[in-house]
Amino acid sequence: MNSLRGWTDVKPVWRIALNYVLVWVARVAPSLRVRNWALRRLGVTVGEGVSWGLEATPDVFWPELITLGDHAVVGYDSVILCHEFLQDEYRTGEVVVGDRAMIGAKTVILPGVHVGERAQIAANSLVTRDVPPETTVAGVPARPMGDSDDE
């Protein structure tokens, strides 16, 4: 059986329903203050001066596994996932975004990824592995800029 069918065994329905409301607020509120308030109510650790972009989406099942460092920027329509439902199991992993890290628009970060301090992730990237501090990555999957098979 597909593990997603048993999601109600993982978290109570009322909690996920409440999370959806708070995620919606975090996605569309015109104020950064209100978006960060909603993230904190979800259980996300939000550092000082965090900029959460419009339409950006935190994990609805395990938002408490997300940490956003001081002055981190999460770009428009990005997604931070802390879980993945597979055919026979589900997995979770903490996602940490370091101080002053920048996540470009429409980026997807998968469970268990740590984004280092002052790291930069280009728009439309899929981040499957840790990003070292002060490194710029791009692509699907995201890789350090300048790395290619031709070099």
UniProtKB/TrEMBL annotation:
The keyword Transferase is assigned to this record: yes
Domain of life assignment: Archaea
Keywords noted in UniProt: Acyltransferase, Transferase
Keyword field contains Ubl conjugation: no
Pfam family, one: Hexapep
GO terms of molecular function: acyltransferase activity
Listed Gene3D superfamilies: Hexapeptide repeat proteins
InterPro entries: Hexapep, Hexapep_transf_CS, Trans_hexapeptide_repeat, Trimer_LpxA-like_sf
PANTHER family in UniProt: ACETYLTRANSFERASE (PTHR43300), ACETYLTRANSFERASE RV3034C-RELATED (PTHR43300:SF11)
Name of the protein described by the UniProt record: Acyltransferase
Species of origin: Halobellus limi
Lineage, highest ranks first: Archaea, Methanobacteriati, Methanobacteriota, Stenosarchaea group, Halobacteria
